[in-house]
Amino acid sequence: MSTQYPVASVSEIPPGSSLEVVAGDKVLAVFNVSGEFFALDGICPHAGGPLGKGTLSGTIVTCPWHGWQFDVTTGQHCLSPAICQVRYPVTIDGDRIVIELPDDDT
Ligand code: FES
């Protein structure tokens, strides 16, 4: 089972930008890569930095605290293959960005 959370409107996250949102009890980072939306766990695994407030360049987000970088389309850390941030499915419903979280993960 899963639950869908409308987290923002499309216009709130223009292409090339990101937004930190809360869905259930999770902090998520939502990214717009050339009109396609991606969502990751928003808490950087290094020291808890806010990935949704990072800098997005192409598909790469740079954490604002110490510069760890992740591919937002996969969650993969750019240097360490062992680190992969959890991704969540994103759908668009009209102007709403909707993120699906598994119920046992909220
Ligand atoms: S908290 Fe993200 S790089 Fe340190």
Structure description:
By secondary structure, the protein is mainly β. The protein has a single domain (2-105), classed as Rieske [2Fe-2S] iron-sulphur domain (Rieske Iron-sulfur Protein, 3-layer Sandwich). 0% of the residues lie in helices and 47% in strands. The chain is built from no helices and 10 strands. It has a 4-stranded antiparallel β-sheet with strand order 2-3-4-8, with no helix packed on it. A 3-stranded antiparallel β-sheet has the order 1-10-9, with no helix packed on it. The chain is globular. The protein binds FE2/S2 (inorganic) cluster (FES). FE2/S2 (inorganic) cluster (FES) is lined by residues 44, 46-49, 63, 65-68.
**Strand/helix succession:** EEEEEEEEEE
Number of distinct beta strands: 10
Shape: globular
Can you count the helices?
0
Radius of gyration of CA atoms, rounded to a whole number: 13 Å
Instruction: Indicate the percent of residues in helices.
Output: under 10%
Report the CATH superfamily: Rieske [2Fe-2S] iron-sulphur domain
- Sequence stretches where pLDDT stays below 50 over 5 or more residues: none
Major sheet summary line:
4 strands, antiparallel
Distance between the termini: 11 Å
Instruction: Please report the first level of CATH classification, the CATH class.
Output: Mainly Beta
- Strand arrangement, major sheet: 2-3-4-8
> What structural category do the secondary elements indicate?
mainly beta
Ligands present = FE2/S2 (inorganic) cluster
Average of pLDDT: 96
| CATH architecture assignment | 3-layer Sandwich
Query: Roughly what fraction of the amino acids lie in strands?
Result: over 45%
| The number of domains | 1
